[in-house]
Amino acid sequence: MRSGQTRQRGTSIVAIVAMTAMTAACVSGGEVRRPVRASAKPRPRPAPAIPNDVAFRQCAANLTALAVSYQPLPNETKGSGCALNGTIKLLDYGVPTTNLGPMTCTVATPFTAWVRNGVVPSARLYLGADVATVETFGTYACRNVVGNPGMAGKRSEHAHANAVDISGFVLTDGRRISVEKHWTAGGPEAQFLRRIRESACKRFKTVLSPDYNAAHYNHFHFDMGGKGGYCR
């Protein structure tokens, strides 16, 4: 009798333990509760590198020596063959200028010299006034070369902020001289524009004007790409 009771009690204990384990392992809907793992913290992205190579430092030192105010910009890979390397934001070089975005230091240096030493004195000589504002179409644009079938599909120097497009000038007497309107108009305005194109050809590797093709009917294109020596 006692052995039967012992077996019965043992069976009951096993059943209770099994039911307890099943109850602890189940939740509503019959799903097994599993431990939740803490999500991994996202790794911080490294900050974009500020240009610091020897060529950039020398170029930046030249701008500083010329009393030019500028801000170095981080190197960036934009994708699709476009990138910003060794670029700056030109803040103040003495003449207000519109639409200037990132530009390589190697473009900013001759651009500053061109405006100061080419444009300003030429405006006084041919137009009898000072330059109040230089108007541009900008610097960086992730796009291909425009208007040259022989370079179809090739990225423009604008895709690397290695170029600037100049559309016109506002004078201190209120007159506006534009490449589109005055290049073929004759008179002192056209002489002024041709003189400053010649000045640009001494400073930039590539200079394109309305004489180059129809795509440049309304602006000058200056860049520091290629082998240089192209002035049209």
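Second entry:
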Amino acid sequence: MARGDQIYVIRPFFNLDGVYEHHGIDCGDGSVIHYSKREPDATVRRTSAIEFTQNHSVYVREYPACYIAETAIQRAESRLGERRYNLIYNNCEHFATWCKTGISDSKQIRNFAPLLSRLDPQSLNIPIIESVEDGHQQDAPRLFDNALGEIKVAWDDVQPQYNQAVQEMKAWDAVARKALERDREDLARAALFRKRKYKHKAADLKQHLDRLAEMTEMLVRDRRDLTP
């Protein structure tokens, strides 16, 4: 590994060994910038490489094209102190991949569960609990995977809508600013009206995404208690 590399280690995740890659940006000076989960909450921090690895083997994520080392580190430094961690759409891999490529992406999440065709997010965990209570604990793993799959279907439907709403909000904000520069208050007011509309839409969609993320974390956390 070298300065500016996107590095990762395999860490235990909710007591499930070997299923979670923890990513960060190697600063080349014995430190790593990453989403650190030290109390009280997950924050983008610069920590020692020893704290990052926790004595696990280190791997490097390779890309055919990406930012040079200095740019990747500068991008990582620009988000120091951020506290917007979310398992599904803003985890450590999203962060490190954005620093390295400019694209917020997580292969782990994209491959997290098989896609299913139906959605009933409010009752995803009910079949699992009922199965265990009825003494059919062997069915829990299958039901667990089905529930995660349904969450993934919902996520794939909502996330593009949220991203589009955010883009529209930013675009209309830019229109309003330009209109004010030209003393066109009428156009600015119209643009701000549209901006508010997309802002409300984005807020509603984000609440749904946050709920899906919470449900995912709950399911993964509880799996060890629901399976044989």
